[in-house]
Every structure is written in C-alpha cells, then in structure tokens.
C-alpha cells in the first residue's frame, strides 16, 4: 500500500466514530479529505459539520454536507483530523497545511479528538517535522527572534497566508521533550496566534494506517 492508500484506509476507519444525528468537527489536509469523501456516503445520517478551514468547508459543501458556524455549536461528540507527527502520548504537531489555529479551536469544542494518520506520522519524539507557528504579520521578526532564543530555527513560509490573514513560521531543529510546556511557552510570545503543538489537549484516539491494517489506540 502506498501512503495515500494508508491515509484513505485510516480515514474510512474513522467513520465508525461518527454518531448519527450529530454535528461533527472536520479537520484539514489530504487525510482529512479522504475522511470528508467517506463522510459523504453517510451525509443523510448526520446533522452536519464544522470545518477547520476554508478548503475543508468547500469540500464538505461540494458533497452536500450541511456546514455549521462554530458559534452555533456548544459541543460536538467528535473531531476527526490528521497530523504531521504524533507521539506515544497522542501529542501532535499539526499545521503543515497552515490550518492549525482553526483546527485547535474547532477541536477544542469536541469531546473526542480522533487522529487519523499513516504510520509515517508516529514518532518517538516530536520535532523532526518543523513546528508551524501562526503569527500576526507585524510581529514576524519579533516572534522569529523569540523562537530562536528558545533554540529553534524559524523559517518564514513565504507566500502562505492563513485563513485568518496571518503568516506561518516553521520552526526547525526542535527536539520537543515536553510538548505541553513548549506549547504554552510559545503561545506566550506576543504576536503568536497559536502554535502547531496539540499537547495541552492531545488526541483521545489514534487510528494508525499500517501495511498490516488500521491499528486502533485509545
Ligand atoms: C493541516 C494539518 C494536517 O492535519 C496535517 O498537515 C496532516 O496533513 P496530511 O493529512 O495531508 O498528511 O495539520 O494544517
């Protein structure tokens, strides 16, 4: 199986976590896209979805899945999304698709975060994948200096503007021993909107796509 086939298998396996008659949270990226395509097959059995990006909203709408604004939704049973890296404690790096802020907001309203990932995303220590940080444009140089002081090497993802009108700094060279502490520390830098560590609130379920089949960790 190639990586796309592993992503598709794991995305379809997540459909059993979608309760009937509910509004669910939907992530962003190629794995989430396979999930959205699978969700289309049960669109008459759910109330709808809250999207974590304009791209996912467009794909959901194209399948005729009703979209809800997060402000209309008090709680959701589940949020399903991919990750760039995930460790044994289900802490993640996300934001390779620049949707980290909305992903963190939408997932925070869900009772269960189901991470769908191919086996390449499982790592012993987070940080080989450069950590995305969403930054207010005016603060780019200031935040870059602060991230350097933390031991990272920030690189501006030039040409990318997030759905919120901000920029992304990708921080290279971090070996993240304490993800929740670093997540909180980076969020304290003035000008940071959020960072791609999902560790203060990790996933509750990991579906891992392996050549031997989908492995479930809860
Ligand atoms: C987007 C994300 C994605 O979940 C992450 O980048 C994984 O993407 P893919 O499923 O395409 O490998 O965080 O901001």
Automatic annotation (TrEMBL):
Belongs to the ribose 5-phosphate isomerase family. The keyword Isomerase applies. Homodimer. InterPro entries: NagB/RpiA_transferase-like, Ribose5P_isomerase_typA_subgr, Ribose5P_isomerase_type_A. The active site is at 103 (proton acceptor). Pathway: Carbohydrate degradation; pentose phosphate pathway; D-ribose 5-phosphate from D-ribulose 5-phosphate (non-oxidative stage): step 1/1. The lineage of its organism: Bacteria, Pseudomonadati, Pseudomonadota, Betaproteobacteria, Rhodocyclales. The gene is rpiA. Substrate binds at residues 28-31, 81-84, 94-97, 121. Its EC number is 5.3.1.6. It is an enzyme of class 5 (isomerase). This is Ribose-5-phosphate isomerase A.
């Amino acid at each position: 199986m190639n990586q796309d086939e592993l992503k598709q298998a794991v995305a379809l396996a997540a459909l059993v976590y979608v309760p009937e008659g509910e509004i669910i949270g939907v992530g962003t990226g190629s794995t989430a896209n396979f999930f959205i395509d699978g969700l289309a097959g049960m669109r008459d059995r759910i109330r709808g979805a809250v999207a974590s990006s304009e791209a996912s909203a467009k794909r959901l709408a194209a399948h005729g899945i009703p979209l809800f604004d997060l402000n209309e939704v008090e709680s959701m049973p589940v949020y399903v999304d991919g990750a760039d890296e995930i460790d044994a404690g289900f802490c993640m790096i996300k934001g390779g698709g620049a949707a980290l802020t909305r992903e963190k907001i939408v997932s925070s309203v869900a009772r269960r975060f189901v991470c769908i990932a191919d086996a390449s995303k499982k790592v012993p220590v987070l940080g080989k994948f450069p950590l995305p940080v969403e930054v207010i444009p005016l603060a780019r140089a200031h935040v870059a200096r602060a991230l350097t002081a933390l031991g990272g090497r920030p690189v501006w993802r030039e040409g990318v503007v997030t759905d919120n009108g901000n920029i992304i700094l990708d921080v290279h060279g971090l070996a993240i021993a304490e993800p929740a502490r670093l997540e909180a520390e980076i969020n304290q830098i003035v000008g940071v909107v959020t960072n791609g560590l999902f560790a203060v609130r990790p996933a509750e379920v990991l579906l891992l796509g392996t050549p031997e089949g989908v492995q479930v960790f809860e």
